[in-house]
From TrEMBL, chains A, B:
Family per record: Belongs to the NAD(P)H dehydrogenase (quinone) family.
Keyword annotations from UniProtKB, A to Z: Cytoplasm, FAD, Flavoprotein, Metal-binding, Oxidoreductase, Phosphoprotein, Zinc
Main location: cytoplasm
Residue ranges of domain Flavodoxin-like fold in the record: 2-210
Subunit structure: Homodimer.
Entries under SUPFAM superfamilies matching the protein: Flavoproteins
Gene3D superfamilies xref list: 3.40.50.360
Organism of origin: Cariama cristata (Red-legged seriema)
EC code: 1.10.5.1
Protein name according to UniProt: Ribosyldihydronicotinamide dehydrogenase [quinone]
Purpose: The enzyme apparently serves as a quinone reductase in connection with conjugation reactions of hydroquinones involved in detoxification pathways as well as in biosynthetic processes such as the vitamin K-dependent gamma-carboxylation of glutamate residues in prothrombin synthesis.
Subcellular compartments: Cytoplasm
Cofactor or coenzyme needed: Zn(2+); FAD
One Gene Ontology cellular component: cytosol
Amino acid sequence: GKKVLIVYAHQEPKSLNGSLKRVAVEELSKQGCSVTVSDLYAMQFEPRATRNDIVGCLHNSEEFNYGVEAWEAYKRGGLSSDLIEEQKKVQEADLLIFQFPLYWFSMPAIMKGWMDRVLVQGFAHEFPNCYDSGLLKNKLALFSFTTGGSKEMYAKGGISGDIRYLLWPMQHGIMHFCGVKVLAPHICFAPEYVSEEKRKEMLIAWAQRLKTLWKEEPINCSPEWYFK
Amino acid sequence: GKKVLIVYAHQEPKSLNGSLKRVAVEELSKQGCSVTVSDLYAMQFEPRATRNDIVGCLHNSEEFNYGVEAWEAYKRGGLSSDLIEEQKKVQEADLLIFQFPLYWFSMPAIMKGWMDRVLVQGFAHEFPNCYDSGLLKNKLALFSFTTGGSKEMYAKGGISGDIRYLLWPMQHGIMHFCGVKVLAPHICFAPEYVSEEKRKEMLIAWAQRLKTLWKEEPINCSPEWYFK
């Protein structure tokens, strides 16, 4: 069975994001996958990249450089235990699903903090091992999110621009950089402004997609896909 | 004199980001501006959007919706005091400068949390008051940041794509959405990989730019600027 890590960022279990997460756990488990969830708000996950992430002495205590310190700490097994735990989950996973409501054209800060702190140099990338040769190659990622704005607002020529524009930093800048192949995003537009029935259809569509997920080809994660 | 708020996210005062922040405070003060700094790490600024941001009872305690609760709390003066404090600083400012190291094609989580929590509906925007009629119109913003990657990597056709691609969510999705006009970004490429002398030149160039900043025209914040 495949291993899946769902990194989930919503405060409310009864939200559509909560339901989308549950649907994924159910459907993937039914397929025989082993599914782990990092429920970031429930874990009170720390988003701030600070000296607390490094156990013991610093490599350079004169001038704190987070990237260098996290890299050095990773190599000697000196990262804080919450980070080691998350890295273990990532290491074991074949597929990472990020489930969140879009905040300001991006992920909520608590999830950005997961990226900032978990994907350290040495673990997820290490020059020249980035992009296609990133250290997390052979894994897949999928961004599944809800929006406030409508599909029309996020169309090419719409007031908020093509939704793909805002996927570039997340899909290319983070996942592709680490060597992870990216599946097409799963987007529920403006669930707060549609009927309860429409929201149920959104859950069914997600469950439906998950049934054949392992047959999907990753996107071609290059500027053409985003900005053609 | 003009009022400037510098939102600053670096752990180390001796860093180049720390120096860029100091240079801005000095140069703008010399011009007679009144300058306020929100030093996010020093403040241990909370990046997580949670129920703690709402003082007193919830609008809907059955199902927590952060956006709705923050909006309702704003209207009745019931946001947590750290948010009220930041909103006051924003309200008074003519110019917002965001000073940070680029983390994963975006701002560090602690600064994303500032955006998520401070720029609430009712304060920064309120449909149909968004984009050109956003509630923070008549203000300017400038993103000033350092990168890990070189200028060549962030060129059009470079491995990380045009640096402008990653500015879209921050400049258009956040600032323009709130009605703020955006000045050209100030980017110091790969300061960790250049000489001490080159880093000094970067500080001088920033001070130099600030001397005539108030004469600058905002960019035309439309897809053409980013993706031509």
